[in-house]
Amino acid sequence: MSSETFPDLGSSIPPITNEILQELIKRKNREHKWKKRESLAGIWLMISAGAFCIFIFFLQIDKLNTLDGFHRLLNNPINWLFAAGVTLTAISFVHAHNQAEEAENDYDQLREEMIDRNGELWPREPGGSTRFRVLHYLLKEKGINLFYK
C-alpha cells in the first residue's frame, strides 16, 4: 500500500506484499466497475426488450392478424431499427457480463492466492498487529476480505 493509504504503518509492509495488495485493490475496482456496467446494460436490455414487445404485441396487434399485415410489419423500417437497438443492447449486456465474470475470476484468484500464501507475504511479528490492521482496513474500506476464503 502506498503511504497515503496506510500513513500510520510506514514501511512495515513488505514490498512484495505491498505490490500484491495494490494489484488486489486494482482488480477489485475493475470488478466493481464491470459489475456496475453489467447492471446498467441489463436494465437497458429489459427496458428496450419490454418496449419492443409492447410495441409489437399491443400497438401493432392489428398487423399481426393477417398475413398481409404481418408482411407490412416486417417491412417497416422503424420495426427493424427498434429490433436492431434491442440487439445492440443485448450484445452490450453479453459483453459487460463476460467482462464482469472475467474480472471477478481474476480478483478471486489473486485473493485466494494471497490467503494461501499468508505466511510467506507477512513478516512474523508479535501479535500480528500490522497484518491485522491492514486486513481490517481492506475489509472495512475496500470490501476485500482476506481473513478467510
What can you tell me about this protein's structure?
- The structure is a single chain.
- This protein is mainly alpha-helical and 149 residues long.
- It has helices at 15-59, 67-75, 77-116, 118-121, 129-142.
- Helix 1 (15-59) packs antiparallel against helix 3 (77-116).
- The longest helix is centred in the N-terminal third of the chain and has 45 residues, at 15-59.
- It is rod-shaped and about 85 Å long.
- The mean pLDDT is 86.
Order of helices and strands: HHHHH
* Amino- and carboxy-terminal Cα gap: 21 Å
Mean pLDDT: 86
DSSP strand content = under 5%
Q: List the total number of helices.
A: 5
Radius of gyration, in Å, reads 25 Å
Largest sheet: none
Could you give the count of β-strands? 0
The residue ranges in which pLDDT falls below 50 over 5 or more consecutive positions are none
Write a concise keyword list for the protein shown above:
rod-shaped; mainly alpha; 149 residues; 5 helices
Tell me briefly what this model is.
This protein has helices spanning 15-59, 67-75, 77-116, 118-121, 129-142.
Which helices and strands appear, and what pairs or packs with what?
Layout: H1 15-59, H2 67-75, H3 77-116, H4 118-121, H5 129-142
Helix pairs in contact: 1-3
